[in-house]
Design brief:
It is a single chain. With 226 residues, the protein is mostly beta strands. It has a domain of 114 residues. The protein has 3 helices and 11 strands; from the N terminus they run βββββαββααββββ. The strands form 2 sheets. Strands 1-11-3-9-7-6 form a 6-stranded antiparallel sheet. Strands 2, 4, 5, 8 and 10 form a 5-stranded antiparallel sheet that branches. A hairpin with a 2-residue loop joins β4 and β5. It comes from Ancylobacter radicis.
């Protein structure tokens, strides 16, 4: 189900990274429009890197030992009291447990309101034919299926690098991300998790700068510092 780049020349982008928080466990390059799911142990840190700039990562996670408890954007926002997440903030579960802590963030602009592209939204926005194009909701369902998670159980996403400003009147608008090549966010696991990422395939609006590109993924062992 994973869609990774293993070709020669794909991994050098991930060498010599800025401010590595601990020893590396593994590294991958996620293909444009790709998807992946994997286990992330408590105390380990996942770094998501925008390799080419302006690329959104739709992110979800589940308590590995209790898949009913999963990422909750609404609980996260209620506890923080603000919709903007960055360094020092926690991503929380339905039951309000801290699932991840943002320990480094070179962008500071992410979205936790807009959800994922899906067949219904694509149909509504771009017409019937667009309902069959690749989308994040089906990407996430595909990689979580081996864990027994159904499409209907896929939660709202934390949209890393997505830029959705809110006006004083409460209106929202998707505009181009501000992330540049090499920008990253570090997420330290506060419990044993299953993580799923869709490298957003949307090219009909500006959320990815109209072009889907690669993401870098690196997991560090930061247990000693957590």
């Amino acid at each position: 189900m994973d869609q990774l780049l293993d070709a020669p020349g794909s991994l050098p982008d991930l060498r010599g990274l800025h401010s590595e928080p601990g020893p590396r466990r593994w590294e991958r390059v996620l293909a444009p429009k790709g998807r992946t799911a994997f286990e992330l142990d408590k105390g380990h840190t996942l770094r998501i890197i925008d390799l080419d700039g302006q690329q959104v990562a739709d992110f979800i996670c589940f308590d590995r030992h209790n898949l009913v408890d999963k990422i909750s954007p609404s609980t996260t926002v209620m506890v923080k009291g603000n919709i903007h997440l960055t360094t020092g903030d926690y991503i929380r579960s339905v039951d309000a447990y801290p699932m991840l802590k943002i320990t480094q963030d070179t962008v500071g602009r992410h979205d936790i309101l807009a959800g994922s592209c899906c067949p219904g939204l694509n149909r509504l926005r771009y017409g019937k034919k667009a309902s069959h194009q690749p989308n994040c909701r089906e990407n996430l369902a595909a990689v979580m299926e081996p864990y027994g998670v159904r499409l209907s159980e896929i939660p709202y996403t934390f949209n890393i690098f997505m830029n959705v400003p809110i006006s004083p009147e409460g209106n929202i608008e998707v505009i181009a991300p501000v992330s540049k090549p090499g920008d990253f966010i570090d997420l330290r696991a506060e419990m044993d998790l299953i993580v799923a990422i869709s490298n957003c395939p949307q090219e009909r609006n500006i959320c990815n700068g109209f072009t889907a590109t690669r993401l870098g993924l690196v997991v560090f062992n930061t247990q000693a510092s957590s």
